[in-house]
Amino acid sequence: MSGETNGLLVPDEIIMNQIYYIRGHKVMLDADLATLYEVETKQLKRQVKRNIDRFPEDFMFELTSEEYIVSRSQNGTLKQGSNIKYAPMVFTEQGVAMLSSVLNSKRAIKVNIQIIRIFTRIRQMFVDNTEIRLEIEKIKNKLDNHDKNMEIVFRYLDELLEKQEQPNPPRKRIGFKTDDF
Predict the structure, then answer these.
(1) Which residues form the KilA-N DNA-binding domain (predicted)?
(2) For the residues 64-86, what does the mean pLDDT come to?
(3) What are the structural domains of the chain?
(4) How many angstroms separate the first and last alpha carbons of the chain?
(5) Considering the entire predicted model, what is its pTM?
(6) HEC-encoded secondary structure of the chain
């Protein structure tokens, strides 16, 4: 992980695969961040606890044992048979940004910049996706209206065809009768 790829410390795909959706937030696990920063997880946790005022609940929270078990089974965060003493901390985008103020290594700062850019890209993809969905909804509504309008037009055409197929009854003459004609 120490070699750079295209000017990046870590390939974007690796970071993107370490962003999880927990409690309605996109977050990263403390162990994953520690690996990216090339520090021990306990060192990262120690720095966070020393500066706990910088990490409100919307920046960082600890997983419950149930959440941890689910994340471990889904993501393989621990090797089989491994055990942990403390619940994992997870960091939101703002929490990751705040980590750069408590971890002073150049690598931590560079990796943080990269992570924040990825979070921003993910948010933009979500916005773009939402806009596309709204446009598709508009098109569907227009098509539904077009279908209804076409149905009405075809109904009128059918009525006209029926009238045209029916023979016209003889018309009564209106007016004065004169024998001169």
Answers:
(1) 17-102
(2) 63
(3) 12-131 (3.10.260)
(4) 111
(5) 0.58
(6) CCCCECCECCCHHHHHCCEEEECCEEEEEHHHHHHHHCCCHHHHHHHHHHCHHHCCCCCEEECCHHHHHHHHHHHCCCCCCCCCCCCCEEECHHHHHHHHHHCCCHHHHHHHHHHHHHHHHHHHHHHHHHHHHHHHHHHHHHHHHHHHHHHHHHHHHHHHHHHHHCCCCCCCCCCCCCCCC
